[in-house]
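Morning!

As promised:
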Amino acid sequence: MEDCIFCRIVRGEIPSDKVYEDDRVLAFRDINPQAPQHVLVIPKRHIASLNDAGAEDAEILGHLQLVIPEVARRLGIAGSGYRVVVNTGPDAQQTVFHIHYHVLGGRQLQWPPG
Ligand code: AMP
């Protein structure tokens, strides 16, 4: 999508601190980190949210989830542990409507989340 901020990051129009990239998926550091390690993993193809994902997105979202452990290894948190969060809709305070998986780690995380 033309104006979507994460589509613009995919196209290289907005800089990002990349930690992983392949033909379908991009992972980059969150600009406002909530943990010592905080990375967003996104499909390059625009999907607005989990609510907007359909059967045609099963393969890309499956691939994306399989990339997450590799991202965690690159961040050095695969062994210590990490949390994966997909904020969806108003109550979850989703602010960017291009689906993204937050990967958070590098400290003891609290449960339940706020
Ligand atoms: P959410 O609230 O789940 O929609 O998360 C959106 C996330 O995108 C927030 O954690 C923001 O800090 C992050 N974010 C917004 N713009 C950028 C950007 N240009 N580069 C990296 N992260 C961003």
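The pocket of adenosine monophosphate is lined by residues 5, 14, 16, 30-32, 40, 87, 93-96 (CB under 6 Å).

Hope this helps with the figure draft.
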